[in-house]
Amino acid sequence: MQQVSHQAPMNGHSFNTGTETFQFQTQVNSLARIYQAFWDQSVKAGQSADQSDLNLTECHLLRFLKAAGPSRMCDISSALDVPTSTLTYMVDRLVTRGYIKRERDPKDRRSIRVSVTDQANVILDSHINQLADLCKKALSPLSQQERRQLIMTLSKAHLHLQDGQGMAQPA
User: Fold this and answer.
1) Cα–Cα distance, 127 to 121 (Å, whole number)
2) CA-to-CA distance for 2 and 104, rounded, in angstroms?
3) Quick one: how many helices (H) and strands (E) in the chain?
4) Rounded Cα gap, residues 121 and 15, in angstroms
5) Which of 29, 35, 79, 142 has the most neighbouring CB atoms within 10 Å?
6) Nearest 10 degrees: CA dihedral of 156, 160, 162, 165?
7) Are 115 and 71 contacting, i.e. CB atoms less than 8 angstroms apart?
8) What is the DSSP string of 34-52?
9) CA 33 to chain centre
10) Would you say 124 and 66 are in contact if contact means Cβ atoms under 8 Å apart?
């Protein structure tokens, strides 16, 4: 049986929709599973029992808040591409656990801002080190030039999809 390969033009480049799509999906899915497994293992090994149930998405939220400072829910939802309902649940959970606090915005008393607590900062330092170790392991076979090129290529693909340019247009 002969394999049929479809060539679809993309910004002047040909793209083998059969083989390259499969290879891309396989690599992205595999990398995501490995990343999640490493994360789960690192968290369980490096944290006490009350801290080990932080999931990866919650950690991303905490890291965002640490970097951005006190933020409104709509801004967080947009930046992390998380639905507001999901974000509200995560924030409620993290407030209950003492990792996030809610405060009124001094400039607009109707608005609430959320920020990380000192307790979250201690945990984040450990998580950031674990993520750095994971990145070092993942990128160690690559030269510095290859690492830069990989980051630039992934960033370009991400921006292309984020802007909606890579999404299928309705007929």
Assistant:
1) 10
2) 65
3) 6, 5
4) 44
5) 35
6) 180
7) yes
8) HHHHHHHHHHHHHS-TTTT
9) 13
10) yes
- Across 29-65, b (16+ Cβ under 10 Å) vs e yields eeeeeeeeebbeebbeeebeeebeebeeebbebbbbb
Phi, psi for 98 (deg, rounded to 5)? 85, 15
Structure tokens belonging to residue 100: 């996030």
In this prediction, residues 67-71 reach a mean pLDDT of 93
Assess whether pLDDT exceeds 50 at residue 23: yes
The two structure tokens encoding residue 138: 């993942």
Q: Is the pLDDT of residue 58 over 80?
A: yes
* Residue bearing tokens 């490096």: 46
**Roughly how many angstroms between the first and final C-alpha of the chain, as a whole number?**
33
- Answer whether 100's CB lies under 8 Å from 114's CB: yes
- Going by C-beta distance under 8 Å and a sequence separation of 6 or more, which residues neighbour residue 39? 56, 130, 134
- The helix/strand/coil state of 116 is strand
The confidence score (pLDDT) of residue 117 equals 94
